[in-house]
Amino acid sequence: MTPLGRLAPTPSGLLHLGNARSFLLAWLWARGNVLLRIEDIDKPRCKPEFTNAAIEDLNWLALVKTGVTPESSQSTRTDLYRKHLKLLAQQGRAYPCSCTRRDIEEASSAPHGDEGPIYPGTCRGKWRDAAHAKAETGREPAWRFLWEEPPVAFHDEVAGDVTVDPSTLGDFVLWRRDDLPSYQLAVALDDALQGVTQVLRGRDLLLSTARQMAIQRALGLPSPAAWAHVPFIQEATGRRMAKRDGDLSLKALREQGVDARRVTGVLAWSAGLIGKPESATVNELVGEFNLRKLSREDFVLRDNHLGWLLHGSAM
Ligand code: GLU
Fold first, then answer.
1. What is the atom index within ligand 1 of the atom nearest the CA of 8?
2. Residue 281 lies in a domain
3. Position with higher pLDDT, 115 vs 191
4. Ligand 1 mutation pick, 6, 7, 10, max ligand atoms within 8 A of CB
5. DSSP secondary structure letters along 56-115
6. Res. 273: pLDDT tops 90
7. pTM for the structure as a whole
8. Substitution site in 17, 201, 223, 250 for ligand 1 pocket (most atoms within 8 Å of beta carbon)
C-alpha cells in the first residue's frame, strides 16, 4: 500500500520554523505523498490571511505543489462531522455536557491531563438530550465522548509503545458549545475517511492519538497504521516556538529573500537527518530520511544558527 501522510496547518497565525520542520519530516517520511489539510474549524481563531500565508510557505518549501482546493479546508466539512457526532450519540458514546470551565476546575480536585483538568464525568447520563440540558441550565451544551475501557495502545516511532488508560485523560469534547466540531473529532474523521496511513506531528499531540483512535474505533473506522510524534524547535530562551506575534515566521524569512533550500537544510540537520547544515532540496533529502536517525530531543535554535540561515555566516 502506498503510504499517505498529511500536512495539517492550523491558520490561527503565521507558521514558524518548528511547524516547517514537522511538515518537512512528514513529507519525507511519506516520500512526498501527502495531502494538505487546512485545519480551520476554530472559526474565531482562524483567518483566511493565515491560510494564504501557510499555502505560500508550503509552496516556497516545495512541500505542496498546488494551491488549496475547497476540500482542503475542514470548515467545508461541518455537516460530515455533525453526522458522525449524531452516530456517536445514537450509540451512547457522545453525551451533552453543560459544565463550564469553572465547574470542571472546581469539581475535579485537580488531577490534570495533557489538556488541563481531567473532566470528572459530571454530565454522564445526566441529560436526555441537548434540549433537556439547555432547558435546565439555560446554556447550549457541549458534547463529550464517553470514553471507557479498554486502554488504547499504539506504537509511536519516536516515543515507543504507548498505552493510554481513558481515565487518565477523561471524557473529551467532540462538539463545542459554540456549535463547532472539536479538533479531536474533525481530525479522527479526516484521517480515517481520507485514507491517511501515517501521521507525523509535534510531540504535544502524542496522547491525542489515543483519543482519535478511540473515536475511530467507536465508529468502526480505520486508524492510521503508523505514528511519529517529533520534538520541537525551541527558542534560545527555552520556550517552544509558537504562532505568536514576533516569533520568526516563515513569511518573514520568505520576504527577507532567504533561500528555501537553506531553510530545508538547516531543518533537516536540526532533526538529525544530515551531519551538517547545508542547502538541500526536499528531493535530495528523501534518501536521507530514516525514522531511526530522528533526534529524540528538542532543538534549541541559537543566534549562530539564525546567522547561517539568514546571512550564511559561520556557525
Ligand atoms: N493542526 C495542528 C497544528 O497545526 C496539527 C494537528 C495534527 O497534525 O493532527 O498544530
1. 1
2. no
3. 191
4. 10
5. HHHHHTTS--S---GGGBGGGGHHHHHHHHHHHHHTT-EEEE---HHHHHHHS-S-EETT
6. yes
7. 0.95
8. 201
pLDDT of residue 247: 60
Tell me which of 203 and 113 has the higher pLDDT: 203
Protein residues with CB under 6 Å of any ligand 1 atom: 8-10, 39, 187, 201, 205
The CATH number linked to 105 is 3.40.50.620
Q: In terms of Cα–Cα distance, which of 15, 23, 25 is closest to 274?
A: 25
Domains in the chain, number: 1
Confidence of residue 32 (pLDDT cuts 50, 70, 90): very high
Domain around 99 = 78-191+213-221
Question: Per-residue pLDDT tens for 81-101?
Answer: 999 999 999 999 999 999 998
Give domain status of residue 304, yes or no.
no
Q: Report which secondary-structure segment, H or E, holds 117.
A: strand 116-117
Asked if 269 and 275 count as a contact pair (C-beta separation under 8 A), the reply is: yes
